[in-house]
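Subject: sequence -> structure tokens, single chain

Hey, anyone have a minute? Need the predicted structure for the following. Not urgent.
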Amino acid sequence: MAEGRRQRVREKVAKGGINILADHEKLEFLLYPYLPRRDTVPIARELLREFGSLNAVFNASTPELESIKGMPKLAALTFPQLKPLLYTAESNVCEGRIQTSWQAAEALTPLLGYGKKERVYAMYLGINGKLLNIALINEGEAAESDLNTRRIIDQALKTGAEGVILAHNHPSGAAIPSQADKDSTRWVAEALSKVGLKLLDHIIIAGMGSYFSLFNGSEEQAQEKLFSPAFWYK
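Reply:
Had a minute. Here:
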């Protein structure tokens, strides 16, 4: 029975692509290579039950995924990398430009708008806000207070960035900066300045429609304020 179901799901994907599948079928399909001889339906349904949505599954951490009964360790390691990998690849192809806090928040929300764990991402920009790369910096219970300055700088030097925008999520749903957020922002800004780089902003994202810019204020204010290249690169 399981093999017959697999064949039907594969035929659906072959005819119309993975997006024609229901969310649990998408997870079933993605688990096939990791469990070639086992029924993946129970695991797929348990993933959705535990995390609530497909997006939340892909934003879950490896330890969270490993806690699901039957979840293969390699799949638990791979799933959290899919969205950042595809998003970064797309960003590098389109070579977009980021000119406001609002644009940065909109670009980073797909990576930070879901999940139970705090994550820190760094957006690396070149001259005039050219988007060069987006990298996961840290994740965990206290990610906002451990921004891993060395990793931020290493990635900046590798990409040839002129400036960095940091962003992290608040799973609580409140886009309000803590004292730790403010302190860590100051530390990173000072560290970057010592190697000739600028911290352009630090954005808190809370869910799929709420953010706060530590440099430009509330969401409404940040939409109105353009970054100033003269300020960035003076």
